[in-house]
User: Fold these one by one.
Assistant:
Number 1:
Amino acid sequence: MLTLNKLKNKNYKKSVRVGRGNGSGIGTYSGRGLKGQKSRSGGKGGLKLMGLKQTFKKIHKAAGFVSPYKKDLIINLNDLEKKYSANSKVNLPGYKILGTGKLTKKLTVYASAYSKNALDSINKAGGKAITCGKK
């Protein structure tokens, strides 16, 4: 039968009690070294002044690279086909038009960038692809 006194916590780690005599195996200096302020009770490392170079060495380097420029949002031709009616002006600054899907409507599209396939599809449908700046 399972009772409270038989339960064991697997995450519990018993702390090592140092400095309890030589018989304990962790006696004598108890990992503090021989002499000095840090070996005594109450002795802690005081103020540490270090130069800038040591500070930089301690700080972990950030992994990778983050561009300060925003990337263009992506929209496909099949999305343009669904959303817009024929002979309409589509103003999408900050977007890149990709050539996934088919475009049958004549549209005038203003966008930041186009894929080669998207440009061909817009021109074949009788529309215009005009490059404009980012938002």
Number 2:
Amino acid sequence: MSDCIFCKIIAGEFGTEILGETEHTVAFRDINPEMPVHLLVVPKLHCRDVTELAQSNPAALIEIAQLATKLAEQHTTDGSFKLVFNTGSNAGQTVFHAHAHVLSTEPKSA
């Protein structure tokens, strides 16, 4: 979608640092982090939310969980993380391209 910020990031329009990528997904830092570790994993295919993604591209949903695990191992002290999908505006979704938040209070020391 031409007006979707995540589609633009996936297309490389902003020079966003990509932290991980699979066949169906990409990951990058949230620009408004709510925790010390706050990463986003998004499908390359534009889907409005996780329920649409599960119907149209279940392989991407699996890859989101797998990439989230890998990112948590790289960016947290012990691999612990919270994986959150906001679905709908009343649930806090503000970008209507499916995405998972990878959250942790314990970043890995440099």
